Amino acid sequence: MRLFGWWRGKNRNGGRPVLDLWHQRWRTAAASPAVAVVSELKAELDALQLPEEEIEIEREMLDGLDQLAHLHDALGRNGLPIVETGHRVVGADTCHFSAPSSMPDDPSQPSGRLIFTGVRAIFAGGGRTVTLPWHAVAEIVQQDRDLLLVKHDRETFHRFRCNVYADAMCAGLLAKRLAKKGKE
To answer: Cα(first)–Cα(last) distance of the chain, in Å?
Structure first.
C-alpha cells in the first residue's frame, strides 16, 4: 500500500506532516534563492531530530539550494560563469555549465554530460550528441534532479536527469538565463 501511496504522490515523507511543511518552505526558497534562507532551513531540519538516513534527500536538497543561492548572487555580480572544458562538442563556444547527466526517456538511457554554451544546450553521451539551440527553447522546467527543455512546437522536449539536486537546480537557473539571452 505504501508503494502505491508514494506513486500517487501521497505519504511521500513517511506520513510526517512536519517534513511536508519543510518541503513546502524549501520549494518557496528555491523559487527565490537567498543564502540566508539556507541556514534557516538547515536549522529547521536539524530541529526535527530525525535520523540522518531518513533525511538524506533533504540534506541534498539543502546543498542544492545553497549552491543555487550562491550562483544566483554571482550571476547578479559577475554575469554568466565561464567553465573551462576541453570537450570537443563545445567547439569555439564559451561553456557556462557542465555536469554529468542522463536522458531517462531515451530507450537506452545514455549517460554523459549536459553542457551549456551561450548558444546551445548539448548532451554528449551514449555515442551520440543532442544539440538544442537556446532560441528554440520555449520552456524550461526543473523538478527534483530533472531538467526539461521544451521546444517551441510544445511537442518536442528533452529531459535530462542530473546526479544531484545542485546540478539540476543550477542548470535550471542558467538555462533560463541563456534561453532569454538567446531570444534577444
So the answer is: 51
